């Protein structure tokens, strides 16, 4: 039997609603979804990826799921293995099937099935210090499904997550726990406010003792998600968390440094003016200049993204960036080889130019810079071309409002504006 025939025949109900066994492969394995033994024999065969693909299609109909109710634990165990140790497309199938197993709609006839799935989840939560499957499973579910996060946020299981003592977990288990917290905070609007603050406190508890790069990356990214909402940054600044991150910054890895830099810039956007002053005392904008000199592309890129956020949130910051030499540093970095960083620099300079005083705008009256913008028009990146055209509009508006450009620059400027085809 060839693979196409296998895909077509693997999942088929008879008229009496029983599943018809199918024989396939050189080993003549027979699969019958009502018989767990044949199901797991099939998973262990050379055809497991095809079977998983068929199972994915089969599970799209929620009414098919009842056939698994008698062997949910074993099926989930197999899917967890596939979601970790196989090729990406197999991992994706496995994670999507996991979500389908746990998310049976409330208005369906699947109440018993859904309860069985969550009963298994609860049973896993009783052995957190010895069994990694609970957080391994939750991290997969939360990564794939907002609906499951919403369900858990209103469920006693959330207290189990928040009350977990991270120091009793093995390092492998701690990685899944940090990932679970990250995915919870990535859609933090589903969380009650008091739960959010407890999750943030738990993240700092982990950062206090764990130096593993993966764990630190997930923890700092979680805080990035949390502080991206300006309504929450005030509590973050006043609880001395900023100082903790400042202490962590020199000793952590480049990815976490990048996350921390964006957290700092999120704090710059705090709507409470007195706290804006506090954050600038803790992290003077001039300190970002040294971050720009970091050898790591990740740190440099995230510094520029952080500066963009600072510029966007506070026009006064543009003057500080000018006086501290940060704008000059950005100009000097603009033609570095890393394209992603170059794009972010141009975006950052645009937001600075739009709010610049006449004194600061003189930095943008630069023939080499204008010619470089013209070159970027042929880059082929639509987003970057839009930024370049925004520069052309800005130059045109300044010129039409009576701003006096350097006479030696006028020809280059008009050529650049014409090349952008602003009509």
Automatic annotation (TrEMBL):
GO molecular function, one term: nuclear import signal receptor activity
This protein's GO CC annotations: nucleus
GO biological process: NLS-bearing protein import into nucleus
InterPro entries: ARM-like, ARM-type_fold
Listed name of the protein: Uncharacterized protein
Naturally occurring in which organism (per UniProt): Trichomonas vaginalis (strain ATCC PRA-98 / G3)
């Amino acid at each position: 039997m060839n693979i196409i025939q296998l895909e077509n025949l693997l999942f088929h109900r008879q008229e009496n609603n029983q599943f018809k066994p199918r024989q396939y492969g050189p080993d003549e394995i027979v699969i019958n979804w009502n018989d767990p033994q044949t199901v797991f024999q099939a998973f262990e065969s050379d055809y497991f990826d095809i079977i998983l693909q068929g199972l994915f299609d089969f599970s799209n109909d929620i009414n098919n799921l009842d056939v698994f109710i008698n062997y949910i634990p074993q099926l989930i165990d197999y899917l967890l293995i596939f979601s970790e140790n196989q090729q990406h497309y197999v991992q994706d199938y496995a994670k999507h099937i996991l979500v389908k197993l746990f998310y049976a709609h409330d208005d369906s006839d699947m109440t018993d099935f859904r309860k069985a799935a969550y009963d298994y989840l609860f049973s896993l939560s009783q052995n957190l210090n010895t069994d990694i499957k609970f957080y391994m499973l939750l991290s997969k579910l939360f990564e794939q499904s907002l609906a499951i996060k919403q369900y858990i946020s209103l469920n006693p299981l959330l207290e189990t997550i928040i009350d977990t003592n991270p120091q009793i977990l093995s390092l492998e288990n701690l990685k899944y726990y940090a990932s679970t917290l990250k995915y919870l905070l990535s859609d933090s609007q589903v969380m009650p406010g008091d739960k959010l603050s407890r999750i943030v406190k738990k993240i700092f508890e982990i950062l206090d003792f764990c130096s593993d790069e993966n764990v630190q990356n997930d923890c700092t990214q979680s805080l990035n998600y949390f502080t991206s909402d300006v309504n929450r940054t005030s509590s973050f600044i006043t609880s001395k968390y900023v100082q903790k991150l400042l202490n962590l910054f020199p000793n952590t890895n480049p990815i976490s440094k990048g996350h921390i830099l964006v957290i700092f810039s999120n704090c710059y956007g705090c709507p409470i003016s007195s706290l804006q002053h506090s954050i600038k005392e803790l992290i003077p904008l001039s300190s970002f200049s040294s971050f720009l000199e970091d050898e790591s592309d990740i740190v440099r890129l995230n510094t520029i993204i952080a500066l963009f956020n600072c510029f966007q949130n506070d026009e006064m910051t543009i003057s500080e960036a000018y006086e501290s030499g940060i704008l000059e540093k950005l100009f000097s970095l603009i033609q570095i080889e890393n394209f992603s960083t170059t794009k972010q620099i141009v975006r950052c300079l645009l937001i600075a130019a739009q709010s610049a005083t006449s004194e600061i705008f003189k930095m943008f009256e630069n023939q080499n810079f204008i010619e470089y913008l013209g070159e970027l028009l042929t880059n082929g990146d639509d987003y970057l071309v839009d930024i370049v055209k925004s520069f052309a509009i800005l130059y045109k508006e300044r010129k039409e409002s009576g701003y006096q450009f350097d006479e030696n620059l006028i020809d280059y400027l008009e050529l650049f504006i014409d090349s952008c085809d602003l009509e």
